[in-house]
Design goal:
mainly beta; hypothetical protein yedk fold; five-stranded antiparallel β-sheet; five-stranded mixed β-barrel; 13 strands
């Protein structure tokens, strides 16, 4: 799954520039973005026109009854897009700009957080979907979820799922006005092992109250923290 991620301001600026957009002036680097946060995402609400919007992370599908909202979906399995989320695949795809993300390794006595990021240090996009939920009294709430897929070799020892990571070029393909299902499946595959680095980090990230650079402080690398790669 993907439940926490990092977005540095310079990486947001680099990705939005690719789509001819301006960054959010009020956005500052975030090092521990958690579900229910308002997150910046890139989407196309109209053909040929990209926009940057702030949307709540935790998808409430439009079909959810107004008087009984379901538990928000932080992640959506990529395998379900052609069944449960066909409408989202067709017209509500989005990109969540990112610098890296975290997963926790169960070591028995405790869970060790790991930070995963592209080996080249470049920003990437978390593939996602969004929707508008209509609540009581005519209220509207825009929400989103991160898509997950099977893990590559780097991440498989920590978790059985990983977020769909898209390079800048793949971000443009994911947001094409019309995306063939076969092309979508190609983009939703796990990223190449060589493109991903894994770094054990300290316990600061385990608390959502911490959202500074200290979340990326490397942890001592004893043998039991090795991913065996």
């Amino acid at each position: 799954m993907c439940g926490r991620y990092v977005l540095k301001r310079e990486d947001l600026e680099a990705l939005v520039k690719q789509f001819g957009l301006r960054s959010l002036e009020e956005f500052h680097s975030r090092y521990n973005i958690a579900p229910t946060s308002l997150v910046p995402l890139i989407r196309k609400r109209e053909p040929g026109r990209a926009e940057l919007a702030g949307v709540r992370w935790g998808l409430i599908p439009a079909w959810t009854k107004p008087d009984a909202p379901a538990k928000p979906l932080v992640n959506v399995r990529a395998e379900t897009l052609l069944t449960r989320f066909r409408g989202a695949l067709r017209s509500r795809r989005c990109i969540l700009p990112a610098s890296g993300f975290y997963e926790w390794q169960d070591l028995g006595s405790h869970k060790q957080p790991w930070y995963f990021a592209p080996a080249d240090g470049q920003p990437f996009g978390l593939a996602g979907v969004w929707d508008t939920w209509h609540g009581p009294a005519g209220t509207e709430l825009e929400t989103c979820a991160v898509l997950t897929t099977t893990p590559n070799q780097v991440l498989a020892r920590v978790h059985d799922r990983m977020p769909v990571m898209l390079t800048p070029d793949q971000c443009s393909r994911w947001l094409e006005d019309e995306l063939d299902p076969a092309a979508a499946q190609e983009l939703l595959a796990p990223t190449a092992d060589a493109w991903l680095t894994a770094t054990p980090v300290g316990p600061a990230v385990s608390s959502v109250r911490n959202d500074g650079p200290e979340c990326l402080t490397p942890a001592p690398p004893p043998d039991q923290l090795s991913l065996g790669l």
